[in-house]
Each structure stands twice: as C-alpha cells, then as structure tokens.
Amino acid sequence: MAVEFLSCISFGVFVMDLNSIQNALRRQPFLPFAMCLADGRRLDVRHPECVAMNKRIVIVIDDDSFRTTLEPLLIVSLEELKQTPKGGNGSQKKTPPS
C-alpha cells in the first residue's frame, strides 16, 4: 500500500515532504516502511534509528550495516512494509528429511 506524502514546489516538481518522513519515523507504534527512490530503488526502514536526516541529506542504514546517503529530492514516496506475523520471525519451518 503506497502512502503518498508528496508536496509541490515551484515548476511542478514533486519532492518528498521531509516532515512526512519524520512523522513516519516517530509513529507509535513504529511501522516499517520503504523509501522509494526516483531511480526505482527501494530502501527498507525496519527501525526508526536506521535513519538520520537533515534538510540536505538522508542517511539510511540497512540490515547489513550498509549506509546509503542521498538527497531528499530523490525520495518520491513511502510504502509500508509487510509485517511479520506475531509470534514468528518470518522464516519457514524446516521439515527433517524422511
């Protein structure tokens, strides 16, 4: 489900509203989301502490501690990530070979 947080600036160019990103990071309870970029990439944000930002840059740390630094103009939308069912870690149970 895509959540639209776009705001219009001059010349009809759309950019992500940084306040909307901050709101998504501060939401209680936090809901993991992906930042969708202009080049088609998606950066998953699974915890609010994985993002640092100011008016000029956004830094996202992934699960492997890889850092992506980007300009806010490159973020075009936010999408909620599917939740792992409660009581599980998302992995499939392995059945022993018979």
Structural commentary:
The protein has one domain (2-80): SH3 type barrels. It is built from one helix and nine strands. The chain has one helix at 18-26, and strands at residues 2-3, 6-8, 14-16, 33-37, 42-45, 51-53, 58-61, 67-70, 75-80. The strands form three sheets. Strands 1-9-4-5 form a four-stranded antiparallel sheet, with no helix packed on it. Mean pLDDT is 80; it is low at 1-14.
By CATH reckoning, the class would read Mainly Beta
Query: Unreliable runs, pLDDT <50, ≥5 residues?
Result: 1-14
What do the pLDDT scores average to? 80
How many H/I helices? 1
Give the domain tally: 1
- Would you count the extended β strands for me? 9
Main sheet: strands, sense, barrel: 4 strands, antiparallel
Helical content (DSSP H or I, runs of 4+): under 10%
Order of helix and strand elements from N to C terminus: EEEHEEEEEE
**What amount of the residues lies in strands?**
25-35%
Strand order of the largest sheet: 1-9-4-5
Question: What is the CATH architecture annotation?
Answer: Roll
Global outline: globular
Give the C-alpha Rg. Answer: 16 Å
Topology:
Blueprint (H helix, E strand, L loop, with lengths): L1 E2 L2 E3 L5 E3 L1 H9 L6 E5 L4 E4 L5 E3 L4 E4 L5 E4 L4 E6 L18
Antiparallel strand pairs: 1-9, 2-3, 4-5, 4-9, 6-7, 7-8
Question: Quick recap of the structure?
Answer:
With 98 residues, the protein is mainly β. 9% of the residues lie in helices and 35% in strands.
What descriptive keywords fit this protein?
single chain; 98 residues; mainly beta; SH3 type barrels; four-stranded antiparallel beta sheet; three-stranded antiparallel beta sheet; disordered N terminus
